[in-house]
Amino acid sequence: MSLHCTLGIDIGTSSSKGVLVTPDGRVLRSASVTHSVSRPAPGHVEMDGAVWWSELVDLCRELLTGADVELLAVGVSGMGPCVLLADEHDEPVRPAILYGVDTRATAQAERMTVELGEDAITRVGGSMLTSQAGGPKIVWVHDEEPEAYARARRLFMPASWLARKLTGAYVLDHQSASQMSPLYDIDSEGWHDAWWDRYAPGLEAPRLMWAGEIAGTVTPEASAPTGIPAGVPVIAGTIDAWTEAVSVGAHGEGDLMLMYGTTMFLVATGRTTLRTPSMWTTVGAFPGTRNLAGGLATSGALTAWLKDLTSADFPQLLAEAAASPPGAHGLVVLPYFAGERTPILDPDARGVIAGLTLTHTRGDLFRAALEATALAVRHNVETMRAAGADIRRIVAVGGGTQGWLWLQIVSDVTGLVQEVPATTIGASYGAAFLAASAVAAPGDEPDIVRWNPVTTRITPDRDLAATYDTLFDRFLHLYEATVPVVHELATHQRQE
């Protein structure tokens, strides 16, 4: 007898992942495939959208071949907000422009802010126009690549692209849409038609749905390459950070999710729309919820850079970093190696390593890099709380949760207890849960607490509070002190 399962697929920045999950939350099979993004110019980060579909096909073949399962539904998820523009035949007109790590549309964001006014933009969309906003990236294509834009008819993100390819439905979930600032009205939960027509001329606005709603069913054309039976329901899906929050049950009022990945993401959930210039205000993955979100441009990307630079493996680096004391013998690192998103909103920020001497070791440098990401998380958390966010519960998720040292440093620096659930696969698991919820009979919906219970609690070392308070002050002051020189260097880099 075939085992009932749901399939979850997530397209991430450095890899795509898939899971087959039973109705009680057990991971039956998992698979992943790595990829890389393209950086064709300083501040440009993009990816061929065709890869998203080809990787889904590869993952489905690996997961479904030889598996005696009956698929109940498919969940999709992906990095975002991304801007993939496609023509009337759903052929991409250019590579997808990625989320806030891509800073190319700074001039467009500034122009739109002048044209519309800061008050109007935040009133409608909830957030200022930053590198995270999708609207200016559409305008960038219109301005800089008019021939490509002239062929564009539709807007996709990874999850909505997969839903389109699987079902033929042209949809986008509300959460993703709310990050297409200023094109979405956060209070009315719909497209702002006047601004859509002005800044996305010629593009058909996708139909809006909630992340866990069924977008359609798998077509025979999509069934053939994937092996998913025709007729299986597919949800609309959403951006990976929000799906990760779902995967660990961190989407209730007072919850904060920390996503440890190539970048770091934070999502605080509540019922009230909070607006602050330095964070992102969005609707939640579920009706009636609102989020205050933030993100680091580098976290795992920074540690990977150091690993490659030093030709050491992660276990060795972590062991050496553990032997270095808090403060890394007087080092302070600014982790802005790809600019920075929240709360400084500075695409021209750059990495800084301060305090180096000839006595410092590789372990000191690696510890200082881990502390840098923790200090940046603290900066975001304090900014969220100042804006009114009620953060009562912290849940950690993502690949970085596998190493205890990084988790402990974040708790020590922030003073926050972190809960780590049994399964930290992340967004693909959350997508499978949303799919299971979408097809469950009323009263028989799955419970994420039972699917994925908390198994570890990371408690901060209160004896280190004073040390990290001092380090945090130095961290903030270092950024302010180096801004003039760093911005000059960023300008020079763009001209090379």
UniProtKB/TrEMBL annotation:
Family annotation (InterPro entries): ATPase_NBD (IPR043129), Carb_kinase_FGGY (IPR000577), Carb_kinase_FGGY_CS (IPR018483), FGGY_C (IPR018485), FGGY_Carb_Kinase (IPR050406), FGGY_N (IPR018484)
Domain Carbohydrate kinase FGGY N-terminal: 6-242
Pfam families hit by this protein: FGGY_C, FGGY_N
GO molecular function: kinase activity; phosphotransferase activity, alcohol group as acceptor
Annotated Carbohydrate kinase FGGY C-terminal domain residues: 257-438
GO biological process, alphabetically ordered: D-xylose metabolic process
Keywords for the protein's UniProt record, in alphabetical order: Carbohydrate metabolism, Kinase, Transferase, Xylose metabolism
Family note: Belongs to the FGGY kinase family.
PANTHER family xref list: SUGAR KINASE (PTHR43095), XYLULOSE KINASE (PTHR43095:SF5)
Name of protein: Xylulokinase
